[in-house]
């Protein structure tokens, strides 16, 4: 199998992430574009139990989400091998992953319905950086919009490095992992929205709470990846080099040690309760 040197691949993926400034951004606000230094608050949502019926601490720190059992395999089909060299093919790949995400998260959702949280599958779009949404026009980045429950995936952050490493199977495997991880992270924001977390955070979505929310989304994304490893296996060499596909050096997503801690928590346990970043000490969410 063809293979580039690891430092070269790392640089390529990091460059791809920085093409959009925020390859893994939080929910975009209505009417304004988020940036690496100033992620604005998410729009109000209507899905799930009203946040005002619970205190903010209840919703963030003692959410019923944390009581779900370990996620189990949803029996998803093996990961698609469609090349990620065009926007259309990238959309096809994401569309192949989305039903697995839906099935995995919906599996135990009946336990959350009793708390008033209704499951709703998100919509998905791939864009070129010029998309206009109910959350504004964020630009060249991947993001989740709570206002219309839609995940918007930026094409160039994956298509660019894929084509730069034409014929390199090892690099393509890592890039595909990065694409899957990004989608699972954004789906994590959708889950947070469904259980009322972003309504509870409101205008406070910046700084400390923003980092905690972003780290939690990555943890939840890895809960999915761990439980569905039969469909989305992570080869040993990729697992030993998570810096090539799992982390992003943007301040509002936390330090690399904090990202490592929470992504490991999600993958090691496959349990949403292991992702309670809102109860974690400051040192774990730096």
Automatic annotation (TrEMBL):
Protein's name according to its UniProt entry: Metalloprotease
Localization terms from the record: Membrane
Domain of life of the organism encoding this protein: Bacteria
GO cellular component: membrane
Alphabetic keyword roster: Membrane, Signal, Transmembrane, Transmembrane helix
Leader peptide range in chain numbering: 1-32
Annotated organism of origin: Nocardioides anomalus
Compositionally biased spans, kind Low complexity: 30-50
Region (Disordered): 30-54
Membrane topology per record: Single-pass membrane protein
Annotated coiled-coil segments of the chain: none
